[in-house]
Write a structure and sequence with these properties.
Layout lengths: L1 H42 L4 H5 L5 H23 L14 H32 L5 H7 L3 H23 L6 H28 L5 H6 L3 H22 L6 H30 L5 H6 L4 H21 L1
Helix pairs in contact: 1-3, 1-4, 3-4, 3-6, 4-6, 6-7, 6-9, 7-9, 7-10, 9-10, 9-12, 10-12
Length: about 300
C-alpha cells in the first residue's frame, strides 16, 4: 500500500509540475485561433459572422472550420518539435522555455499566412474552372465549402509535417527546410487533385459548381487523406536533402496508390450493390460520399501509424 501511495504522490507532483506549462500552451493556442480569425476577417470582402450567423451559410462555416483546424494542426506540428515545452522541469519558465513558446507562436503565424495564401492555389490550380469565392459565399455551395475544408486541413497537415522535425543547424535553416518541403507538399497536392480528376468518370469541377454536396465531400475527404500521407512523408528529422526527398517521393507514390486502390475496393467490396461514382455524381448521395471519405482517411491513418 505504501508503494502505491508513493507512486500516486509522485504522479500528482509530476502533473502539478507540467500543468502550468500546459495551461500556458492552451492559452497560446486560443491566441493563435483568435489571430487566425482576425486575419481571415481582414482578407475577406464579406463579414464572416454575418454569413455564418444571419445567413446561416453552411459553405462559409465549412470553409472557416477547415481553416481554423489547419491553423491548429500547424500549431501542434510546431509544438511537437519542442520537447522542453511540456517536460516535467518544474514550475519555472526559464529562457529556453520562452524561446520554445516564441518559436511555436512564430510558426503558427507563418501557418496563418500560408493558409490564407493557399486559397489562391485552390482557385487557380485545384478548382480552377469556376470562382470558389462565388460558389461558397454567393451561392452557398456546400460541396465547394466541403472541398475547401479538405484543402485547408490537408495544407495544415503538410505544414505540421514540415515544421515538426529537427536536424537543422539553426532556426533559419530549419525554417528554410520547412518552407522547401511545404512547397513539395503543395506540388504533391496539386498532382493528386489532377490524378483524382483523371481517375473519376465525372468532372469534379462541373459537379461541384452544380451544387453537388456529395462530390465536394468525397473530394474534400480525399484531400484530407493525401494530407495525412504527406504528413507521414514530411514527418521526422532532416537527415539530408537526398534522403529526405527520396523518402518524401516514396511515401507520396505509396499514398497515391493506396488511395486509388481503396476507392476501387469501396466499389468492389464495401458497397458492392452501389456504383460509387454514379451515386456521387448522378445520385448526389452524400451518405456514400461520407463513407468514401471515412475509408480513405482511415487508410491514410493506417499508413501514417504502421510504417
Amino acid at each position: 500500500h505504501r508503494e502505491g501511495e508513493e507512486l500516486m504522490i509522485e504522479s500528482i507532483i509530476d502533473t502539478l509540475q507540467v500543468f502550468p506549462r500546459g495551461l500556458l500552451l492552451v492559452g497560446l493556442g486560443l491566441v493563435v485561433l483568435l489571430l487566425a480569425k482576425l486575419a481571415r476577417d481582414l482578407v475577406t470582402p464579406y463579414r464572416i459572422d454575418e454569413e455564418v450567423g444571419e445567413k446561416q451559410n453552411m459553405a462559409v462555416a465549412l470553409r472557416l472550420t477547415g481553416y481554423l483546424a489547419g491553423v491548429i494542426l500547424v500549431f501542434l506540428g510546431a509544438l511537437y518539435q519542442g520537447p522542453t515545452l511540456v517536460g516535467p522541469e518544474g514550475f519555472g519558465f526559464d529562457q529556453a522555455y520562452g524561446q520554445e513558446v516564441l518559436r511555436v507562436f512564430l510558426y503558427s503565424v507563418a501557418g496563418i499566412v500560408a493558409l490564407n495564401l493557399v486559397r489562391v492555389l485552390m482557385d487557380r490550380v485545384i478548382l480552377y474552372k469556376f470562382s470558389l469565392e462565388k460558389e461558397v459565399v454567393t451561392d452557398q455551395n456546400v460541396g465547394a465549402g466541403a472541398a475547401e475544408f479538405g484543402m485547408y486541413v490537408a495544407t495544415g497537415l503538410m505544414i505540421a509535417g514540415a515544421v515538426s522535425g529537427g536536424g537543422a543547424n539553426s532556426e533559419l535553416d530549419g525554417a528554410l527546410i520547412a518552407l522547401a518541403f511545404f512547397g513539395l507538399g503543395l506540388v504533391l497536392l496539386g498532382i493528386f487533385a489532377l490524378l483524382y480528376q483523371i481517375t473519376t468518370p465525372y468532372d469534379i469541377h462541373s459537379e461541384i459548381e452544380g451544387n453537388s454536396t456529395a462530390v465536394g465531400v468525397a473530394f474534400g475527404g480525399n484531400l484530407v487523406a493525401i494530407g495525412l500521407v504527406t504528413l507521414k512523408a514530411l514527418f521526422g528529422d532532416f537527415v539530408g536533402w537526398g534522403e529526405s526527398i527520396a523518402a518524401f517521393t516514396i511515401f507520396g507514390v505509396l499514398g497515391f496508390v493506396l488511395l486509388y486502390v481503396m476507392r476501387f475496393l469501396i466499389d468492389l467490396l464495401l458497397l458492392p450493390s452501389i456504383r460509387v461514382s454514379v451515386a456521387l455524381s448522378s445520385g448526389r448521395n452524400t451518405g456514400v460520399a461520407f463513407i468514401e471519405s471515412g475509408v480513405v482517411i482511415s487508410s491514410a491513418l493506417i499508413l501514417l501509424l504502421a510504417i
